[in-house]
Design goal:
This protein is mainly alpha-helical. The protein has two domains: about 5-350, no CATH class; about 365-590, Up-down Bundle (Methane Monooxygenase Hydroxylase, Chain G, domain 1), CATH 1.20.58. Helix content is about 80%, strand content about 0%. Residues about 1-30 have low confidence and may be disordered.
Length: about 600
């Protein structure tokens, strides 16, 4: 089966081969001086290595820094400027604004940050991507093979996963620069080919340059890669700054295509992030495109100049100017829009409002995203968010469970009034069964990736938590109808004391589920220890209530004797649920590496 990456490289091959053949067919005399087959092969090979090196570098960075980057992002405050800085820093480290966006979606979905908070990070991520262009602008191609050798050595002989991941990043960086060297060598003969030079001169038209940049970036799915290609052209003196700026702006729009495609069929949170990405990019380009000549003059003023002339001068000056233009454009965009993130957030929320009721009735996953599997730290966040949702559903089941035993007509489900309380419980149990299967399958896919020891522990722990949640749902649903039928057949209520004890104990167990939900959302060991302590306390409370019930039986209380079986089974059900909450809390302590201190 052909992968999406293979298809991408095939398209690149066709683009280069057919593009070159059509471009150069008009001048057969010039063709005798240039070996077009060698040019196309070298250019394509260099581009493939460039893209592969970028992907390898990003992969190594994400593996080396995934968990720590996740912690930094999840600790964000409401300060939008802090979000901007963190977004830039995280994207600079992992060299992938797409990966940063995936993290944002997972945190918004998990409730760790608001959508408006994420807007500052999106703007910061755009700044982080400019670092690649700055590095490419430095002529490091002479050291490419040294970086490849060093990175490969670390990958092969590194003492731990961290060193091997850093080695993978260095190897990718070396491959990236070696690919750039091949592309640069392939383009040297084109410096004297008039049709090619004429075509590039037309790109100084802002609209044409914008379209070329957007189309090519959408094709190769990497604005950093396309910016690198522009810099390679500039190093050969083939394009001017005035032609490079529109293509850079087009590349910024081209990245929106990838974000838009990724959001198709995704959650509303993902669509909001994609829409914010598009809104920032398109608005920024529209603001800048009419000022390109002045912007180019400003960039020339800031950038170093050369004493060379002609193409040599372009090759010496323009690469650095394009990198600077790319950086200043994105930095300027970020600082221009950061004060208005709340305004943009309201606009986007207007088009993608919350529809919780409709969504809540649908049996489907909310957070799982297969595109995040290759970044286990992010995928684990999404799996935890889905399990956290299971806990929320379980709590609603438990809240409604006691009502049919206390009231002749328990009424309708408080969240979905179109359903009775019993129908609501049955619907949620079906949901939990569905989510358990989906989350376990997702965790299995994560387990097939290259994981650290802590991530392996987290995968196994969450698989067990998922099973425990499903078991709690089964306990509630399987026992509900038989016990309700018995209670109605008696046509007799519990004793006043027994009824009060059941209500109090039910509230205690409901609080345990709420604590568990908060604990699992944050993986907070202190909260987990509290759940374990409460589990022991509530186990003793259940025993106390059971003894009190036995004393009423000893007194031959009619209500207690008639309802004995139902009363005892209800206590037993809630006791079992309490035990499972304690077991889940212990798993959380194990995942976080904390000791189980219940003293």
């Amino acid at each position: 089966m052909v992968s999406s990456k293979s298809i991408k490289y095939i398209f690149i091959t066709l683009f280069i081969l057919f593009g070159n053949s059509s471009l150069f067919a008009g001048d057969s005399s010039a063709s005798t001086d240039i070996a077009w087959g060698v040019v196309a092969m070298t250019l394509f090979g260099g581009l493939a290595l460039f893209l592969y090196g970028m992907e390898k570098m990003s992969s190594g960075m994400k593996k080396a820094a995934g968990d720590s980057m996740r912690s930094i992002l999840s600790a964000l405050t409401n300060n939008r400027y802090m979000g901007l800085l963190v977004g830039a820093f995280v994207t600079m480290i992992i060299q992938s604004s797409s990966a940063t966006t995936v993290m944002l979606v997972s945190f918004v979905q998990a409730g760790l940050m608001t959508f408006v908070q994420s807007l500052g990070v999106i703007l910061g991520a755009d700044i982080g991507t400019t670092i690649t262009a700055q590095l490419v602008a430095f002529k490091l191609t002479d050291y490419a093979l040294l970086m490849i050798a060093g990175g490969f050595g670390l990958m092969m002989f590194g003492r731990n996963d961290s060193q091997k991941n850093i080695g993978e990043s260095i190897l990718g960086f070396g491959i990236l620069f070696y690919g750039m060297k091949l592309m640069s060598d392939a383009m040297k003969p084109l410096r004297t080919f008039e049709p090619f030079i004429t075509m590039l001169s037309h790109l100084e038209n802002p609209i044409l340059g914008l379209l070329v940049g957007a189309a090519f970036t959408a094709l190769i799915q990497s604005s950093s890669a396309f910016t690198g290609i522009i810099i390679v052209l500039a190093q050969q003196g083939l394009i001017t700054l005035d032609a490079g700026i529109p293509m850079i702006m087009g590349a910024n729009i081209g990245t929106c295509v990838t974000a838009g495609l990724a959001s198709i069929g995704a959650t509303r949170e993902a669509k909001r992030v994609a829409m914010a990405h598009v809104m920032f990019k398109v608005t920024g380009v529209l603001l800048f495109i009419f000022w390109i000549p002045w912007f180019a003059d400003f960039i020339r003023y800031l950038s170093p100049s050369s004493d060379a002339v002609g193409m040599a001068k372009l090759g010496a000056e323009v690469p650095r100017q394009i990198a600077n233009a790319h950086t200043i454009f994105n930095v300027g965009l970020a600082f221009a829009f950061i004060p208005f993130t709340s305004f943009f957030g309201r606009i986007i929320m207007k088009y993608y409002p919350d529809v919780e009721d409709e969504k809540d009735l649908t049996i489907a996953t909310w957070h799982l995203d297969d595109s995040a599997i290759e970044t286990p730290a992010l995928a684990l966040d999404l799996a935890r968010a889905e399990i956290n949702r299971m806990a929320k559903i379980t709590k609603r089941m438990l809240n409604g469970f006691i009502k049919p035993f206390l009231e002749d007509d328990p009424g309708h489900d408080p969240v979905h009034p179109q359903l009775t309380v019993i129908e609501g419980i049955e619907m949620r149990e079906t949901k939990i069964d569905f989510l358990e299967k989906k989350v376990k399958k997702y965790l299995l896919k994560i387990g097939q990736q290259s994981l650290s020891d802590s991530q392996i522990k987290e995968v196994f722990g969450m698989t067990t938590v998922c099973s425990h949640m499903e078991t709690i749902g089964d306990i509630l649903e399987r026992n509900l109808m038989p016990l309700v039928a018995k209670k109605r057949a008696l046509n007799l209520d519990f004793s006043e004391e027994g009824k009060a004890e059941l209500i109090r104990y039910h509230k205690k167990v409901c609080k345990q589920i709420s604590r568990l939900k908060d604990t699992f959302s944050e993986l907070d060991p202190q909260k987990a220890q509290r759940v374990v302590r409460k589990q022991v306390k509530y186990a003793n409370l259940e025993e106390e209530y059971r003894i009190a019930h036995l004393e009423r039986l000893h007194q031959a209380r009619k209500e207690s004797m008639k309802t004995d079986e139902i009363h005892t089974e209800l206590l037993e059900i809630m006791k079992r649920i309490n035990v499972y909450t304690g077991e889940i809390a212990k798993i959380i302590l194990d995942i976080t590496g904390s000791e189980n201190d219940t003293d």
